[in-house]
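Bug: token stream looks shifted between consecutive jobs. Job 1:
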Amino acid sequence: MLPLHQIADEVRRFTLEECGFDRVGFARAERLVEDGARLEEWLHNGRHGTMAWMAREPERRYDPHLLLPSARTVIVVAKNYRTPFDPGEDSRAKVSRYAWGRDYHNILPKRLKRLAHRLEELVPGTESRWYVDSGPMMEKAWAERAGLGWRGKHTTVITRTHGSWVLLGTLLTSLELPPDSPATELCGTCTRCIDACPTDAITAPWQLDARRCISYITIEHRPKEEAIPEEVAEQMEGWAFGCDICQEVCPWNRFEQKVDNPDFSPRPGVLELTPEELAVIDDAEVERRFTGSPIRRAGGPGLRRTGAAMLRAQGAAAKNEPPNNAQAEAHSGPRPATAPQPEIPDPQ
């Protein structure tokens, strides 16, 4: 068998060069005591909304040995999905960037499977299990431990090299690899993500109430036939599937790396969706247009619900719109000479 450091080097090389991931790190497979306690409290407070599966056997999410008893290492990978495309100014039904192209659940698991096979080649008898956010793994906590990045105040992982535009995957393995140093939190005093959230879903730094999150409301909330509450619909700012607001305002995303990857490039029509067509889209059309896309997860009922909510919000906004800018300024009071600027953390 190769020396441990050579095995570790080969795992890193294979993950980046052969599997096509952009970041990789190792963490010791152990019970996530503090993260587990926070998860239990979050669930107890009902902040997971109707995502009932998250409350089933929650201990499986923070104890990797309940998933793979022989686990000694968690390999964490990240894939950059920031393409050079941008939605037009007149985009009326906005879609989160990760959902513009192919469903990453159909891409990343195949690459992790290749990595698992390589581990078994390096050390015969190695056991592995891999997950891409569809299994009970706290991938953000593991990404932090493996040194890939830290959790921003919006709870999304931020990397030094790609900002927050990354998809995460984890692989549990019985192979013992030298752990990387955990990432250091570098948000400083910045609160841009908190200030920008239109529904106040980020209730405090590192505290997210899914019930108010636009991504949860447009994708996960059940039953999908239930109308979106008016007070939420009026604050959705045109988002039809997911939401990128807290990422778009993050100063660390000035380090984003735009790659022309066909897997994540916009599918035809995705950037031209309108509330009108979503409000009446039928299930057959959803299957035809969105099979193989993350958007399919919302289903016909979910997309129709969101489209209807967006139309109601547009109607309410038009009804309440002041007749001219002078009146608008009179209602809102004088504007500050300059907008307050949060401290941008030093990347060094």
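Job 2, same session, no restart:
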Amino acid sequence: MTILRLAAMIFLVAAVPLHASPPLVSGLQDAGLWVNPPADATMITENASVDLSANLLFSTLTPGAWGLNHPGTSVDKIVIDDNAIKAPVTDADGTDWHRQIIQSGVILTEGQSYTLTFRAKADVARTINVNGNINGGDWHGYGLYQPIDLTTDWKPFTVTFTATKVAATNNVEFNIGQRNGAVWVADVKLAPSTRPAPPAPVAAAKVRIAAITKNGWEVQIITKPVDFVEGKSYTISFDARTDNPRNAYCLARINQPDWHGVGDYNASFNIGADWHTYSFTFTAKNTVAGANVIGLSLGAAVGNVWVADFKVTENAP
């Protein structure tokens, strides 16, 4: 009888994966909302249907989301014209990527097929290149590349690609540096090519931001203290959406003076009108027992932000 009990115990222990440790943080039920006046915000719990199948690249007119990337001392800047981005180029040097209408911080899933749709035109008929690179390192491409021919009239475009060798954050680029002139881009959307059915509603933290300051960090969801171990790797993941697209930040820090970071990252990301899963990995350093927290800085714009399925997990060695 004793032998049978021992055999059963060995079987049960062996069936549990060695890496299946529970999350250090699961949900935001114990989190708080830090607001620095005159910023004004409140947080409640609300049921939400987290549909992760829609757009990943957000509203064309998201403040700060798009820029005109260029080397050197060019003074060219994008402007908003007729509900579109207008990029006037006045000092092109003939290299397409020396002028880029660019959005950084795009989160992509390795091996996923995506469809990019947009409208575009130019002040004269010309060709530009739609391109995608990782945001840093060797800046290698992840599979998005397509020359497109523009005319002086608005035309719709669709580009499909499979994301490979993606990074934590990636760029979507319209390379327009071949020649001087103006290019307009509008209604940019990036979505998975195949979309699953929306899941059942889940509990989400809803932050209603009524007033902001010049600093987006003055409205933050702050978790309860997290027991990070110095030198270990962790992943923060969550789903989020907003009714007013914005740039946001996720950071690990201590919750007392001098408020220093406890990770080797300060992740900037864009939140749009559709649900998206965000994931950030970092190594803990300069930790302080009982004072380590995760902060989500959401105060770059007024409006509502929803956050669901928030988790912090320790990565296997």
